[in-house]
Amino acid sequence: MKKEIFIKRSRITAPVETVFKWHSRPGALERLSPPWDPVCVMERKGGIRKGAKVVLKMKAGPVPFKWIAEHTEYKENRLFRDRQVKGPLAQWIHTHKFEPDGPCACFLEDRIDYALRFHPFGNFFAGHNVRNKLERIFNYRHTTLARDIAAHLPMTGKSPLNVLVSGASGILGSALVPFLTTGGHRVVGLVRRKPVPEKEEIYWNPVSGHLDLNELGGIDTVVHLAGENIGQGRWTEKKKKRILESRTKGTALIARKVAELDPRPRVLVCASAIGYYGNRGDRMLTEKDGPGDDFISRVCHEWEQAAAPAIEKGIRVVFLRIGISLTPAGGAFAKLLPPFQIGIGGKIGTGRQFMSWIEADDVIGAIYHSIINENLEGPVNVVSPNPVTNLEFTETLGKAVSRRTPFSIPETAIKIAFGEMGKEILLSSTRVKPEKLLKTGYRFRNPNIEGTISHLLGKL
C-alpha cells in the first residue's frame, strides 16, 4: 500500500472561531459538496466531535457506493479529523486544521492521507485522476467556504433568524437550507409529505388550503420557493393550470397565514421569474418595466399579486424575478451539459436570443441579501449583470468542455417538439439588469459566464 498526501491551504478573512463553528453546524458537508459530484447524507451522529459518524451515498461515475467515516480527533478551534471506515480507498484520513492569523483572519488547511487499492496498479491507472479530483473538489470547497462566510459576516453579533422555507427539497431550496444552517440560523421546512420527526418540518397542502403555523414557536422570515416545474413536458391546458395554481394558491395561502400571525414575520421572500417580462428582444429591462403578454408573464404577474394579504398587513415582501439558474445539480444546465460533453451541443434557433442567467449560489446569495437588507422590497431581478446570447453561452460551454459546437436546433423543430413551452422558454429573448441588487450593494460571486461555467465544472 503506497501512501499519498494531499494538502490544500487557504487564508479565510474571518476569525478562526467563526470558521471552525461554521464547520460544526448542520449543512456544512452539503455546502462543501461540489454540484458536479454531490453526496447524499444518509445518516449522521455526533457532529464533528470524536466518535461521531456519518454515512454518505456517493457515486463513482454512474456506480453508487456507500462511504462511512468516523471522527477520531477534535480540538476546538484548532482541528478535527475523520477517517474512512468503509469506502473505495485503501486508506483515507482527513485532517481539518485551523490556524489564527490575527483577530480577523485564519488559515484553513485540509490534509488528506490516502492510499489507493491494488497497489501498484491502482496508482498507475488512477493515481493522477484521484489527485486531480482532489484538487478540483478542494478548490471548490475553499472558494465556497470563503464566500459563504463573507455573506454571513454582516449578521455577526445579531440574533439568528428563524426561517420558514417552502420548496426546501428543490434545487434552490436544497442549497439554501444548508447555507442558512451553517450561518447559525434555524430553518423549518414546509413539506407535502408526512414530516420526518428528526427534522424541523411542518405539513402543508396548498390545494386543500391546509397550513398551521401556530406550532412554529416564532418565525421572523419566510422564503417561498415552491411551484410546479415549468420546463418539463408540453404545456397542455391541464399543465398550464397546474403551473398557475401551484404558484398563486401556494403564495396566497402562505401570505394569508403569515399575515394572521402575532407577531408577524418581518419579511416574505417569494420566488418569481424573469418570465414576467416576456419576449422583449434586446431591450434592457429593469424592475420598473411592466409584464409581457405571454402565458408565463401572466403566471408571474398573478403569482406576485397573490402575496397581497402579507403586503396589506405591513410585511416587507420581496419578489425574486429569477433568471436561468445554472447548476449541474439540476435544471437547464444539468440537461444541457451531457450533449455538450459528447460533442452534440449547439445553439437554439438563431442563437441571438438573450439569456439572463445566474449561478445558483448567487440566487442563494440574493435571497439572503433580500432577507437582511431592509431597503429591498417589491420586485428584484435575480440575474447576472452580464446577460449573454444563446450563441455566446453555447460557445462558452463548448470551450469549457473542450468540444466543438457546430450544431443548431431549428426554431421549427423546437416549436414542434415543445409547443408553447419551447416558444416561451427556449426561444424567448429576455435581457434583464439586476438594478436593485446592484444599487443595494450585492456583490456577485460569479458575474461572468466564463468564470461561472469554469466554477461549476470544477475547472478553476
UniProtKB/TrEMBL annotation:
Domain NAD-dependent epimerase/dehydratase intervals: 163-373
Residue span, Coenzyme Q-binding protein COQ10 START domain: 12-121
Ranges for domain DUF1731: 409-456
Pfam families (UniProt xref): DUF1731, Epimerase, Polyketide_cyc
Membership in a protein family: Belongs to the NAD(P)-dependent epimerase/dehydratase family. SDR39U1 subfamily.
Official protein name in the record: Epimerase, SDR39I1 family
